[in-house]
Amino acid sequence: MYYYANEIIQKMKKEEQLIIFGAGNIARLVLECLLSELYRLPVKYCLVSDMGGNPEQIKGIPVIDYTEAKRLVSKDALILIAMSEKHLESAVESLCFHGYQNIIPLTFENDLWSLLRGNYYRAERLSQKKQYLTVEEELERSGYRKETGTISVYTARCHVDRALKEDISRFCWEIPIQVGAALTKERICDICDDVGEHISEKNQQYCELTALYWIWKNDRSDYVGLGHYRRHFELTKEQLGQLAGSDIDVVLTIPIMDIPNVEAVYRRDHIGADWDVMLEAVRTLSPEYMPAVQEMQSGKFYYAYNMFIMRREILEDYCSWLFPILFYCEKRCGEKEDIYQNRYIGFIAEHLMSVYFLYHERDYKIVHAKKHFIL
């Protein structure tokens, strides 16, 4: 019995042929998880459109193309698409063209992939005799209590956001905040991050952290939180009310998984020198956190997206610790020509959030909530 997605996992276990579509980094992550002792799922092949540039096998699983699949893979096989969201549409079209209809996406942001990862992370925590608490279990255990505090959960929006195709009315409890408002005259939210004390003009590097800074300096709720216009905590308004009257200190998302470790993947995908400056900043400003840094960077999990819900007093402590480190990094790393890599402050902060809560994991009651990603 698995905590998350038990029904679909049991379905996968019964499949005669379970195929991974993809052979890149995400496929490797999916295989690392599904072939583990926790799942031991019967993955037969990794299927790719073309063998050019692809390995012959991954973790002992043969990599084949459509030509070989004609004789080896049944058209009824369950195909798990393991790649980034930007390739999902073309992957589905390709598979359908070749006669495969039994398809489940396990893309990087995919909700199901998050849940499969959640079981894996939970099992690892328990094997280390550490807690893994979920918001659902803890609210049910404590029972419904009358709301005793105020709670405000913001969702970061930007004037260049794409229109959403999905109905998000179930997240009506979120408070939209426009980030980077100082950089445009266009207004899309009633609340903007350039009012009061702010760093709105830094949004191109700080991303959703300009909203975090605004919340820190301008919101006085007892609980505060932050999500994104495409990433939302799977909570109901009733659960939010319960949370405000509970003994929960912090709500985080199911962490991201990196192999071989968090540091190696950051250096692969981003600018390694920025990571070095982050280490220098922590060593200089908060040396007592260095053991937590070492644990984070040598491990394979970290809390992504700068998403959280936490008590006001914890937010005060967290931001008082976080932003001096980020300002240190910004001063020494400067701006990047590449727009994506120029968001390095936001990327670094994701990893620093993991450092902070590793350091304080015995001080706070930390629970995990499911995240919904809107394609």
Please tell me about this protein's structure.
- This protein folds into 2 domains: 6-114, Rossmann fold (3-Layer(aba) Sandwich), CATH 3.40.50.720; 131-373, Spore Coat Polysaccharide Biosynthesis Protein SpsA, Chain A, CATH 3.90.550.
- The protein is 41% helix and 18% strand.
- The protein has helices at residues 6-14, 25-34, 66-72, 88-97, 111-127, 135-142, 203-206, 209-218, 237-244, 262-269, 272-285, 290-298, 312-333, 344-359; strands spanning 18-21, 43-48, 57-58, 61-65, 78-81, 103-105, 133-134, 151-157, 175-178, 191-192, 223-228, 231-233, 250-253, 256-257, 301-302, 308-311, 366-369, 371-373.
- The strands form 4 sheets. An 8-stranded mixed β-sheet has the order 7-17-13-16-11-8-9-10, with helices on both faces.
- Helix 12 (290-298) packs across helix 14.
- The two termini are 29 Å apart.
- The relative contact order is 0.12.
